[in-house]
Amino acid sequence: RNTKAKPFVTITFFGLQGLALFLSIWTSVRFSLPVGLSILGWLLLPISIVLLSYSLTIGISLGKNYSRSGVSNHLVKTGNYALIRHPDLIWYVTFLIALILVSSSATLLIVAPIWAAWKLICVIIQDKVLFVRMIPGYRQYKQETPMIIPNRKSLIAFWRTIKIDIHRSEKIVV
Q1: How far is C-alpha 74 from the chain's CA centre?
Q2: Other residues' Cβ atoms within 10 Å of the Cβ of residue 100
Q3: Model-level pTM?
Q4: Which of the four pLDDT bands, split at 50, 70 and 90, describes residue 167?
Q5: Of 100, 97, 96, 102, whose CA–CA distance to 42 is shortest?
Q6: φ and ψ at 28, to 5 degrees?
Q7: Residue 83: exposure state from Cβ atoms within 10 A (0-12, 13-18, ≥19)
Q8: How far apart are CA 109 and CA 170, in angstroms?
Q9: Rounded CA gap, 75 and 62, in Å?
């Protein structure tokens, strides 16, 4: 019921995650990588940041989900969420891999799989327990859309919804 609790928890979580990432990179021993892997990391890093940010904010209507009291009953089935039910997991793991490649941090190489496993556990709990109870239509969405690995049907749905979103944005600009 407290509209300030969700934003506070969200900001605190991301702040602590950012601090942990910073410390694991800044204070770590480095290992050597081929230049090509480092370049790959630099290419993946901005892409993963944009897609992770989009999935957690714009893709699920940040204002509707994080700033209002109670539970959101808003089910998103377009864009990243037409591709898989939990795109933030894929983009988060991609982000961690990119950071490892860019930073060559031995500490991050150790903690990133732990963080990724923790995120996977949270996603499973959300998918199996929480969202089914919280969001109307989620059971049907589970039948239509894969959890974390895209399939042919979800790729088609993803491209279809992306095209619709692009056409809508073009009409708004004109």
Answers
A1: 17
A2: 22
A3: 0.81
A4: low
A5: 102
A6: -95, 155
A7: buried
A8: 42
A9: 13
Provide the 8-state DSSP code for 147.
S
Q: What CA–CA distances, in Å, run from 161 to 74, 85, 136, 142?
A: 17, 14, 21, 17
Q: How far apart are CA 48 and CA 56, in angstroms?
A: 12
Q: Using CA atoms, how far apart are residues 93 and 70, in angstroms rounded to an integer?
A: 29
Distance CA 154, CA 106 (A): 36
For 111-159, write each residue's pLDDT tens digit. 999 999 999 999 999 999 989 988 889 999 999 999 999 999 999 999 9
Q: Any residues with CB less than 8 A from the CB of 5 and at least 6 apart, and which?
A: 69
Write out pLDDT tens, residues 19-75: 999 998 888 899 999 999 999 999 999 999 999 988 888 777 655 555 555 555 678
User: Would you say 138 and 73 are in contact if contact means Cβ atoms under 8 Å apart?
Assistant: no
Quote the CA–CA distance of 18 and 56 in Å, as a whole number. Answer: 15
Identify any residues that bridge with 105 across adjacent strands, giving them in sequence order: 30
**Separation CA 54–CA 38 (nearest Å):** 24
